[in-house]
Amino acid sequence: MRGNIIKTITNLRLSPLGFWSIAVISIFSAEVLVMFLLTLLGHSFSIKVALLDGLLLIIQVVPMLYFFLYRPLAINIRKLQQSKSELEKIQEELEYRVTERTEELTMTNRALEEEINERKLIEKTLIESKKRYRDLIKLSPEPILVLQNGEVVLANPAAARLVGLSDAKELYGKQVIDFIHPKNKNDAINQMQKILATRTETELLEYQIIRQDKQLMNVEAIGAYINFEGRPASQVFIRDVTKRVKAEETIRSLAYSDPLTGLPNRYSFEKKVNRVMEKNGFSKKRPVIMFIDLDDFKSVNDTLGHSRGDKLLLEVAQAIKCVMGSNDVFARWGGDEFIACFTEMANEAEAEKMAQSILDIFKQTFLIDGHELFISASIGIKMYHYGGSDYEEVVKSADIAMFASKNAGGNNYRFYTEELNAVTVRRTQLIRGLRQAITNKEIIVYYQPQIDLRSGKIIGVEALARWKHQKLGWVSPQEFIPIAEETGLIISLDEQVMRTACQQTKKWHATGYKIRVAINFSPNQFMDKMLATKVSELLVEAGLHPNYLGVEITEEVAIDVGHGLETLEHLQQLGVEISLDDFGTGYSSLSYLERLPINNVKIDKSFMEDIAVDGKKAALAQAIITMLKKLDLTITAEGVETEEQLNFIKEQRCDKYQGYLYSKPLPADEFEQLLKEKW
């Protein structure tokens, strides 16, 4: 308890005066209390005085005790308590710091463990990555090399195969530059140096490499910087482009030369001729262009096949080259057309002499696979100094002259003139106008009656195309039909005529005139394998039964039996009558009549001419009719214009006829009026 009191007093931190006051008051209070107790107990006054003296003594002694004993002790006690408090704080601080450091060390240890684990994982991943990298290179279908100082340190099997080795390891340690063609070595060295210097990838470069078997190959290569096994390296990706390069060479060859004959083509010819014209611009001699077209070359392809036709073209090309000079230019224009530029000719006489030399080539026969072939050519000539000086004008003029030569019967040559140009202008007008007329459905269909010889009645009609040009007026079918065939417009024209004729015939049926309509089919129509289907659809569209439609084909179709046979059979199965038109004017053959599904033969009008006065022609016509009768074919005589001709075909027991004797071709309204009069 005393300790507590001292502690309390010490904690109060009183000054000496304060302490003294408290001590006196406390002692006095205690003395009074004692005297009060003594009074109660009945003690004497002397005892009270003794107590009072004692009190005074105590009052004198207590300060002295305080200053000499208690105060220093209290101060020490207070200092000890302060020290203890500071020690406790220091201990707490130390414990906190120890705890904090322990946690830091724990975290650091954990981080180190994680870093160690991460490093182990990275090392494992790196090992796997290296293995995967090598595996990917090994499995790549494209050649890949890794180079250090130009030496192969890694290669895949594709790279080994590229250079003709069996194992990729055979490449290790070799200098890659040893495989590169000398003309490309500097480029390859620069590429490898650039990779290491810039540490980037290079542009794609093309090289030629030399294989182990000394064969040359074309490759594309692109390189990139890598770190391989801790050292700088170049990774090179290679692609074999040999096939592509060869294809490009082929394309370039095709761009400038004809694949069949090896001669220059149109493009190459133009470039060479333009150079000649520039060179000879001020020369007294001028270039001469000759357009050369083989006459009736199509019949060779049709009868002997295209392969033999190609061989004939090769023979012709070689023969013409032999008569030309070393500075002359000779090219294949296309198909059966050739073009030549004779670089220096003084006049037309020299050009004429050269043209005749070319025509003389065709006086000989060409032996192709055991077949002796006779063929001729048509030549158009344009002297450079006549009208127009540019290439296009000169070639166009030679082309015009060539067509004039061909139209004159072929096996000849023509020089270009302005009159010939007028013919070409008209032809151009006709082509443009015909195309427009077909598009606008301006083709008019005329109808020429076909008469039954026994009854004398109209039993059929032939639909014929007629055309009136907006500026040129009526154009003869003999003029616009060949143009339509040459330009391919004939297919649309025939289809338009057939649609119109079938619809008109159906209208006549509705009024009681049951007649058959015959349509002329161009050979070009039979190029379409869907022809029979289209005919069937048109019949359905018009509502006309197939038995009332006839199709007339020329002997040109009959020649190519295999091509049109299936279509003709389909048409005949539909019920369409098949007629062979203009019989006797072409390559007539009994074999065609035997093999083709033909119902009717139309004898050409040329056999009807002068039949009353020409005994040979009459005998020939009689023989043809007799032969056709024995083949059980229906016979129609064309071009009957006189009573003598009519009596002759009656005597020969033909089945039908048509011609101006009965009626010329008429437009639909006039033909309908004829039906009303003659039915």
What secondary-structure arrangement, pairings included, does this model have?
Elements: H1 2-12, H2 16-41, H3 45-139, E1 144-148, E2 151-155, H4 157-162, H5 185-198, E3 205-210, E4 216-228, E5 231-240, H6 242-256, H7 266-279, E6 286-294, H8 297-304, H9 306-322, E7 329-334, E8 337-345, H10 348-361, E9 366-368, E10 371-373, E11 377-383, H11 391-407, E12 412-415, H12 418-439, E13 444-452, E14 458-469, E15 473-475, H13 477-487, H14 490-510, E16 516-520, H15 531-542, E17 549-553, H16 555-559, H17 561-574, E18 577-583, H18 590-595, E19 600-603, H19 615-630, E20 634-637, H20 643-651, E21 656-657, E22 666-667, H21 668-678
Parallel strand pairs: 11-12, 14-16, 16-17, 17-18, 18-19, 19-20, 20-21
Antiparallel strand pairs: 1-2, 1-5, 3-4, 4-5, 6-8, 6-11, 7-8, 9-10, 13-14, 13-21, 13-22, 14-15
Helix pairs in contact: 1-3, 2-3, 8-9, 11-12, 12-13, 14-15, 15-17
